[in-house]
Amino acid sequence: MASDAQPPTLLALAQNVNALVSDIVAHLSATNQPEPNFTTTSTEIQQDAHYIALRDALNDSASDLLQLVNGPKQHLRRYLCTHNDLAAYQIAVNHSYFQHVPEDKPISLSELASKANLSEDIVGRTMRVLCIQRVFSEPEPNVFAHTAGSILFARDEDLRAAAAYQLDELFEAASASASSLGTGRNPFQQRHGVSMFEFYAQHPDRAARFAKAMAGIVKIDRQISELVTGFPWEQLGGGKVVDVGGGSGHVSIALARAHANLNIVVQDANPQMLAQAKHLDLSDLNGRVTFMQHNFFEVQPVTNASAYFIRQCLHNWDDEKCVTILRALVPALEKCKPGTPLLINDTIMPGHATDSRYHEHGLRQIDMMMFVALGAKQRSEEEFRTLLRTADARLEIVKVHSEGTMGLLEVHLKREE
User: Taking the model in full, what pTM does it have?
Assistant: First the structure.
């Protein structure tokens, strides 16, 4: 958890903000990237490790400066009212504002309201909530246009699905967080009456949207670079890789495109998730990504793999269920060559005073999301070690390839010497 060595002063924070902005401008210049702006032509900054460190530090200092200037009451007021902002986003997403506003020209309020099939009053009010945050703009009264913050959603169905998933199922479930405590139900069950997995089984349309949402979330802040570049896949030769709980296969597809030597089996228990692959053009992969229905609580059927990886799955389950998932992989690992890696690609929670507050806030939000959706949690490296030891004393982490939002742990099954 991030902490302060000494209380910051306004002037010191302002000077730090100025210095960090100068460093960011210099970095953009050195990497031949233009400065960002709020127009639809603004390009996305390539966020390498150096830029991310500067970005996080700037957010920490700028946030502290604003909190001190605004005072605790105003800060609290804005923080506790963010659900009203989300309400405006919810209406905008569900009524297709992002698609109705033309990409290349403004639209009048009356025309937008007609396209959304809503009153001009509610469309104008919700649009102005978003405009204040530079998601859309109002260049003249009752006329709206896209910005860099809105055009993303207009152009990308996966991002819209990610927003809808957060603003519908999870936003509603979050409101039942406190009332769920002590009931034996998680907030999602408390609000929707069934578990998240049962909910999607009952609503195939939402299940299809959820599959797209997972792809959208990867685009937002759970990049697969740690998995694609953080492990020496070339050492596997042309071996078989098993993506355990791989959903629609979007991660494995990207991995296969980055490494022509890999043959990947995507496993998932949900046929709706697997069915999403039918809508994808995989002709360039020449059959190197295949799909298999498999429940990861049951013994792993593929026993001749060169590697197994499980991404964004363990955080969906409590410790007991995670132990079952890991234990189900052991018989397959026993039949594989010694040193066959099990890669766990998941959020790794920080310890005390190890992260920026901006970065840690994102991790804590994800942890709360797991509580809301599934009554589950994100884990620290030590908590992962405990799970592995409980599943089988021979399972041990041999290398931590990365930490944070998308950590990558390499696990081996220790053999008798």
Answer: 0.84
Instruction: Report whether pLDDT(113) > 70.
Output: yes
Quick check: is 315 catalytic? yes
CA atoms within 13 A on the CB side of 58: 15
* Domains of the chain, first to last: 10-79 (no CATH), 82-154 (1.10.10.10), 156-218 (no CATH), 221-413 (3.40.50.150)
Q: How confident is the model at residue 5 (pLDDT cuts 50, 70, 90)?
A: low
**pLDDT category of residue 407 using cuts at 50, 70 and 90:** confident
The catalytic position among 315, 352, 359, 412 is 315
